[in-house]
Amino acid sequence: MKQVLLDLQSGSIQVENVPVPAVTRGVVVENAYSLISAGTESSLINLAGQSLVGKAKARPDDVRKVIQKVGTDGLLPAYQQAMSRLERPEPLGYSSAGTVVTTGSDEFEVGDRVACAGAGYAVHAEYVAVPKNLCVRIPDGVGFKEAAFTTVGAIAMHGVRNANVTVGENVAVIGLGLIGLLTVQILKAAGCRVIGIDIDPEKLALARDLGADVASNYDGLFERVRALSPFGADAVVITAATRSSAPIEAAGRLVRSQGRVVVVGNVGMDVPRDVFYEKEAEVVVSRSYGPGRYDRNYEERGIDYPIYVRWTEKRNMEAFLELVRQKKIDLDRLITHTFPLDEAPGAYDLINTGKERFIGVLLQYSPNGSGASGTVVRLKEPGAQARRVPAPARTLGCIGAGVHAQSALYPHLAGLPVNLGGLATATGLSAQTVAKKYGFSYCTTDYKRILDDPDIDAVMIATRNDLHAPMAIEALRAGKDVFVEKPLATDIDSLRRIVEARDESGRRVMVGFNRRHSPLAVKMKGFFANRATPAVLHYRVNAGQIPPEHWVHDDEQGGGMLISECCHFIDFMQYITGARPVQVVARAIEPTGTLQKYDNFQATLTFDDGSLGTVTYTTLGDRSYPKETVEVFAGNAVGRITDFRDLELRRDGKASRERRWLTQEKGFAEELLAFVKGEEPDFVASVATTIATFAAWESIDTGAAQEIDIGRVGL
C-alpha cells in the first residue's frame, strides 16, 4: 500500500510503498479520504526542515536526554540513537474515513463505513489499523468526505464542552481557521449567539455565511461585542494558532466577569493577570478531543470509561457526525482542495507556501487502493537487497523493531555471518523503514510469514514482553532456532510451555541476557575463576523513573521493571558464580504518587554454591550518577564494573583497570554472534533466572522467602 511519510532530516514529503498494517484490538480500514491538519502537520514539517541546531533548540528536553545518555552509555551510542530517530520517517495525518476490511473487534464488521482518529493510527495511507475506541460508524446520509473531518470536529466539540455554554449565551471565537469555523457552527447548533474574530476578511465572510451573528477583525471589536452583549462574552474559545499572546490578551478584555476562556489552539500563554484577576475569569486549556486522549488503556486497549464520563473522545466523534447528519454543520464550504494520494507532496507545498487560500485540504484514495494490499513487500531498490554471505550461513528472520531492537540489536547485523530474510512489525511503516535500512530481503506486518518461510532457520523476537513467550513457542514449533529478548516469559505457565516446546522441537533457545557476553564480564569471570570461597555480589541499578503510562508497567504487556529488568542482573550473577539461585527474599517500597510497586526494591538471592547476591533497583536517584554498578567480593579479591565502561579488579593490594571512553561493552554484538554461529546457550540458567524474578515478586507480596525450583517447569 502507499503511505505519506515525512523525512525528519530534510523535511521532504514522500509517498512510499509499505505493507498493510496488522489488526490488533480494532480494525483495518481502507481509507477513502483523509484530512490534512494544516497547523499540526505543518509545525512538524517545519521542525524537520531545520538544521540539527534548530531541531535541538526546538526540542531542549530531547537534547537533555541525549546528554544524559552520553554520560551513562558513552558518546557513540548516544549519537547513534539520536541519528537513528532522525532516520526514521514520520507518518502524517490523524483524521480519516473509509471502509472496514479486517476486524478484530466485536463492535465492527467488515464493510462498515467508519471515521478514524489518532496520530499514528488514522494516517495518510491506503490502509490504516485503528483501535476500536478511535473508530466510529458513519451515519447514513454522511459521506466519506465529510466523515474525514471527524477528528478535528471532535477537537472543536471538546473545546465547546470545556466552555460549558448554555442556550442563549454569547460566545466569541478567536481564529477562524478550520477548527474555528467548525466551532462557530457547533455553538450555533447549541443555541448560542456567536462572535467570530479573525484578521482575514474572507474567513470573516465565510463565518457569517456559516451562522456567526457578528464577524469582526480587531478594529472596533469591543464596541461590536458590547452591542451584542453589554456585559461581554459569556465565554471565549481561542482556536487561533500563533506564538503571540495577543489572542489570550484579547480574550481577557472580551470575556465578562467570571466568564470562561478556553484555549484550543496553540497560542502564546502570557496571560495578563490583572485583567483576569479583576474579572475572576476562568482559563481552561482544552486537551485534544476529549477524555481518553493519551490514556493507553482507553486508546490502545479499548477499555471505555463509564457513561458518567459522558463525552469521551469517541462519543465526541459520534456527536460531531450526528450534527453533520442533521445538516447543522456545513462541511462543503470548508473543503477548498482535494488531492489524489500520489500528489500529497503538492498538497503540503500549497499549505507551506500559502500560494492559494485554503481551509480544508483532503487526500483522496482510489477505490480498492492501488492494488497493493498485501502484508509483504519485497525490497527491490538498489542497496536494499539482502546481504549475501558464503554458505552454509543461516538465514535470520526478525520480529519487532522497537527502540531496543534498533539501538542495541540490529546495528550489529551487518557484522554477522548471516543472511537477512524477513522483518515483521505490526505497522507497515516501521517494517519497511527498518528492513530497508538494515538490508532485509522483505518486510511484513504478518509475523507468521517469517515462521512459515522455509528459507529462514533462525528467528529473533524483539517485541513487547507479553509476546515473547507465545511467539517463541510458535517459532520452535515451526522448527526454528530462537533468539528471544528478555524476559523469556511473564508468567510461570508461559515459561512451562516454552520448556515443553523446546524439548519437543529439539531447537535452541537463547535469551537476550547480553551482559554475560560483555568482554568486561568475561574478564571478571576469569578473574574469579579459581576462587576458594563463595562470592558476595551487589548489583545496583540507578534506573531513573519511567513514566507510569509506559507499556512496561502494564501487567499484561510489560510485567513491571522487576520482571522486565531484574532478570538481567540475576542472570549476570549466575554467570559470574557459575551457580544456580535457590532462594530469594525481596522487599519493595510501597507505591506512592508516581512510584510503582515493583520499581524500588532489593532482592537477595542465595546460590547453590553458598554465594549471596543482592540486586538493588531504584528509580529515586539522580540520572547523572552511574546507572549500573556491580561489585563482586570473593577469595580476598574485589571486582567492579560500572556502566559496562569501567572494569576494576583488585587482589593482594594490586589493582588493574580498563575503561571504554566512547561506548559501553554490554555484549550485544557478542551474544548475537554466538547465536548465529550455533553456540549452545545456557537455557537452564535463563529459566532459573526467570523463575527467580517470579519468586522475587511473590516474596514482595507475601513478605516471605521463596524457593527457586526449576522443577516447576519440568527441568
TrEMBL record:
GO molecular function: adenyl nucleotide binding; anion binding; metal ion binding; oxidoreductase activity, acting on the CH-OH group of donors, NAD or NADP as acceptor
Family named by the database record: Belongs to the zinc-containing alcohol dehydrogenase family.
The keyword Transit peptide belongs to this UniProt entry's keyword annotation: no
Nucleotide-binding in keyword set: no
Pfam families: ADH_N (PF08240), ADH_zinc_N (PF00107), GFO_IDH_MocA (PF01408), GFO_IDH_MocA_C3 (PF22725)
UniProt cofactor(s): Zn(2+)
Family matches, as InterPro entries: ADH-like_C, ADH-like_N, ER, Gfo/Idh/MocA-like_OxRdtase_N, GFO_IDH_MocA-like_dom, GroES-like_sf, NAD(P)-bd_dom_sf
Identification of the protein by name: Zinc-binding dehydrogenase
A single BP term in Gene Ontology: small molecule metabolic process
Protein source organism: Methanoculleus formosensis
UniProt keywords, alphabetically: Metal-binding, Oxidoreductase, Zinc
